[in-house]
Amino acid sequence: RAQPEKLLERGTSHYNAGDSTKAQQAFVQLSTDQTAPPHLRAQAYQGLAALAQRRGDPVEAAAQVEQAVATCDDMSCDASLRATFYEARGVLKRGAGDMEGAVDAFTQCASLDADRACDAALARLFHHNGLIQDAPPRYLRAVAAASSSMSCRGEGCVLRVPLLNDAAIALEATGNTQAAVALLREAVQLDPLNEQSVGNLALYLRDLGEVAESLKWGRRGVDIAPQSSAMLHNVALLEQWVRNKSGAVALWRQARGVKLRGFP
Description:
Elements (H helix, E strand, L loop, with lengths): L3 H13 L3 H12 L6 H17 L3 H14 L7 H17 L3 H14 L5 H10 L7 H10 L3 E2 L8 E2 H14 L3 H14 L4 H13 L3 H14 L4 H13 L3 H16 L4
Parallel strand pairs: 1-2
Helix pairs in contact: 1-2, 1-3, 2-3, 3-4, 4-5, 5-6, 6-7, 7-8, 7-9, 8-9, 9-10, 9-11, 10-11, 11-12, 11-13, 12-13, 13-14
């Protein structure tokens, strides 16, 4: 009889190797072993949920995640493990269009483990569902979390530069342009060729009255994205603002040519 730890290791190994049949066998055997520690049985349910998602069965995946949540309480599992199950619940609820359920699950996840990607998920849920005023605090927690990374594979992490860009948009939209600029400065340091970071930094600096620096970043944006009519138009306005009429006209002509060629 295989030990529970070995069954979990076996199921995970088969899952990663793409052998769903053997992974299923190992996870089922572990999940039904009532003598196995709850934290291992719960992880087996999570493995079964991942297999269900792989074969395109979100209903079964959700059922298995609920089993994991029910198996793993605060006496038998540590907070970081429980957070992974609530995160999985949130992902499935979001995919099913249940925003209230997703918000509740991600909120519980974030309260258990601030370093997972649940604050980022909450921020983006608020941001893109008409509740942008609730997004900035969650974005700031997400930016501070260990899950925010320059390279990211799988669940439980979030790419840092896109997160900084989204957070800056939410902060600026809710009246905190200074904080937005601070995040964008970090973003352009991490990724100097990021069109969104550079373009928004130019716009927000302009709004703060920092016209010279705004123009510097705007011109860099044109170098990065010469086929972006929006970038060209915005920088043309900046050139006009500093009385560089010929530069503004040249950019507007360039923007018109870009649109005629079918670029956005």
